[in-house]
Write a structure and sequence with these properties.
This protein is of the alpha/beta class. It has 15 helices and nine strands. The strands form two sheets. The chain has a seven-stranded parallel β-sheet, sandwiched between helices. It has a two-stranded antiparallel sheet with strand order 2-3. β7, α12 and β8 form a beta-alpha-beta unit. α8 crosses α9. The longest helix is centred in the middle third of the chain and has 23 residues.
């Protein structure tokens, strides 16, 4: 099986010949290890594609992500300004929305006029043409709640779920439409077969189960419903301890949920196996970044033995990895999965 077939077999709850394995995002890691920067490639589709294609040949991941780290550009395309950092992904300088009238002025059509968004679309097509038959090629975006919080301001969104819930919901709904607009360009042309949403602000460390049900889940469902119509699979990652809402994840409509290292993977398996493919969840900092290769091997094997022997599972870090993770540690992590035969 190709890496792509291995991943999608797991998504369908079956047992592939080996353990599927993928990084999550990896934009900062890729930039750091290729000597590039987010700013230098922001409008360079060919450069972005060549970097990703070349780096993918090192076989770090069955899933190849385009645009990882550029997630804030989807909002900035509607009128925001981007601040580049010396290390790390670019940020929005300030929120776009303070009132409902601000939201009404935003035009989704402006997305296609943004040079960076256009570069990501073009780079995704280049990467898909080059390696899409072998690997799952996708583009990344914030999930609706996180994207809405970036547009409104994270602290204001937290307060808004209590003080102005209808406005908060309208903002997150708009963000879901922005997700759909971004991915439609790729799905309608058959460029991608999977979308990838990171929704860290929907974290169990930031919002309660009830807030998740009211302000995050319905809008994830809106995007996944659209994806199903398009015949596109969905991978979602949510940060933090989400143990109190594991039972809600199959209701999202996604094909796979990527779990943070704070979630007990044995508990996740007991609640999710056969209901939704689940992925995770080796600690990206204390193990992959700070550990020795032998420690990486130990924790990776423990994760697989606990969660991954019955299918419906993808080995992943518990979140995006820091740019400084040693290459040897990533190779160890990946090779254990690639060599672990299931059939």
């Amino acid at each position: 099986m190709t890496p792509k077939e291995v991943i999608f077999t797991a998504f369908d709850f079956h047992k592939p010949p080996r353990i599927p394995v993928a990084l999550f995002g990896g934009g900062m890691f890729t930039m750091y290890n290729t000597g590039n920067s987010f700013k230098s490639l922001a409008e360079d589709a060919k450069g972005m594609a060549n970097m990703i294609i070349s780096f993918s040949k090192r076989s770090f991941s069955d899933i190849v992500y385009v645009g990882s780290g550029y997630n804030n550009f989807h909002a900035s395309a509607l009128g925001g300004k981007i601040r580049y950092r010396e290390i790390g992904a670019p940020d929005l300088e300030e929120p776009l929305v303070n009132t409902e009238s601000d939201l009404d002025k935003l035009d989704l059509e402006r997305l296609k006029d943004n040079a960076t968004v256009s570069a990501i679309w073009e780079a995704t097509e280049m990467v898909s043409r080059a390696i899409g038959d072998e690997f799952v090629v996708t583009a990344t975006a914030w999930g609706p709640f996180t994207l809405g919080a970036q547009m409104f301001g994270v602290e204001k969104m937290m307060r808004g779920t209590f003080k102005s819930p209808e406005l908060a919901k309208k903002i997150v709904d708009f963000a879901a439409n922005l997700n759909i607009e971004f991915y439609s360009h790729l799905a309608d042309k058959g460029i991608i077969k999977m979308i990838c949403l990171a929704d860290p602000t929907a974290s169990g460390d930031l919002i309660s189960r009830k807030q998740f049900e009211n302000f995050a889940l319905p809008y994830l469902q809106k995007v996944t419903s659209w994806a199903k119509i398009k015949g596109v699979k969905v991978l979602v990652h949510i940060c933090g301890d989400t143990s109190d809402r594991l039972d809600l994840f199959p209701k999202m409509g996604a094909d796979c949920i990527s779990l943070d290292h704070k979630v007990d993977i044995a508990r996740a398996k007991s609640e999710l196996l056969g209901k939704i493919c689940f992925a995770g969840n080796v600690n990206p900092v204390s193990v992959l970044n700070n550990g020795t290769p032998s420690e990486v091997e130990e924790m990776t094997r423990r994760c697989i033995e606990t969660a991954g022997l019955e299918g419906g599972f993808v080995l992943m870090p518990g979140c995006d990895i820091p740019p400084t993770v040693p290459i040897k540690n990533v190779e160890t992590f990946v090779n254990i999965a690639r060599e672990w035969k299931l059939n």
